[in-house]
Amino acid sequence: MRRALLPLLAFSLGLVGITAAAFIMLRPEAVPVATAAVGGPFTLTDQDGRTVTEKDFAGATHLVFFGFTHCPDVCPTTLQQISDVLAALGPKGKDMKVAFITVDPERDDPASLKTYLSSFDPRITGLTGTPEQVSAVEKSFRAYARKVPDKNGEYVMEHTAIVYVMDAKNRFLGALDISRTPDKTAAELSKRM
């Protein structure tokens, strides 16, 4: 009886070994989590006249918003909503930074950005540069901006009004939904930190 069981046992062990080897060889490789190609290197000037790059925002989750200081409603409203969310984060948001990148570099110099942003949370950094520098950043974020003449002989800027959430390595995580209360938005944002 032992003689009959020995080949059967060897066959069974061999079958288990082949199955295990096939499982190891055929299992799918871990697929990396894809992030959208949004953002990238930039060199701009902040509201204090200092040169700033994307590296100044690395190290913690941060926000990016495109706008301009002559914006009649969307920009100041959004910046106030961002300020409220930062306050709602409390101590958890102490390292949070926000880049407010102008889409109107012709009018938004460092001094005008500094004056404009004085009404909002101090963690919001205003950024400007040459039209070419700003255009390059808009393209890297897939943002839209266009000068539109108004009826007073001046102009306004149509632009993307998304608040980009970027991770500590400057990778795009998604858009921040600021249509909710600051507490709810802060709770959602804290999950990405």
Give the C-level CATH assignment. Answer: Alpha Beta
What percentage of the residues does DSSP assign to strands (E)? 15-25%
Would you list the SSEs in sequence order as H and E? HEEEHEHEHEEEEH
N-to-C terminal Cα separation, in Å?
A: 65 Å
Low-confidence stretches: 5-34
- Helix- and strand-based class? alpha+beta
Kindly report the name of the CATH homologous superfamily: Glutaredoxin
Helix coverage percent of residues? 25-40%
Give the second-level CATH assignment, the architecture: 3-Layer(aba) Sandwich
Q: Which fold does the CATH topology refer to?
A: Glutaredoxin
Strand order of the largest sheet: 2-1-5-4-3-8-9
Mean pLDDT: 85
Quaternary structure classification: single chain
Count of structural domains: 1
The major β-sheet equals: 7 strands, mixed
Number of helices: 5
Organism: Methylobacterium aerolatum
Family: Belongs to the SCO1/2 family.
InterPro entries: SCO1/SenC, Thioredoxin-like_sf, Thioredoxin_domain
Keywords: Copper
Fold blueprint:
Layout: H1 2-26, E1 43-46, E2 51-53, E3 62-67, H2 74-89, E4 97-102, H3 110-117, E5 124-128, H4 131-140, E6 145-149, E7 155-159, E8 163-166, E9 172-175, H5 182-190
Parallel strand pairs: 3-4, 4-5
Antiparallel strand pairs: 1-2, 1-5, 3-8, 6-7, 8-9
Helix pairs in contact: 2-5
Describe this structure in words.
- The protein is α+β, with helices and mostly antiparallel strands.
- The protein has a single domain (43-190), classed as Glutaredoxin, CATH 3.40.30.10.
- 35% of the residues lie in helices and 22% in strands.
- The protein is built from five helices and nine strands.
- The strands form two sheets. A seven-stranded mixed β-sheet has the order 2-1-5-4-3-8-9, with helices on both faces. A two-stranded antiparallel sheet has the order 6-7.
- Helix 3 (110-117) links the parallel strand 4 (97-102) and strand 5.
- Helix 2 (74-89) crosses helix 5.
- It is globular, with a radius of gyration of 26 Å.
- The N and C termini lie far apart (65 Å).
- The model is unreliable at 5-34 (pLDDT under 50).
- Pfam families: SCO1-SenC.
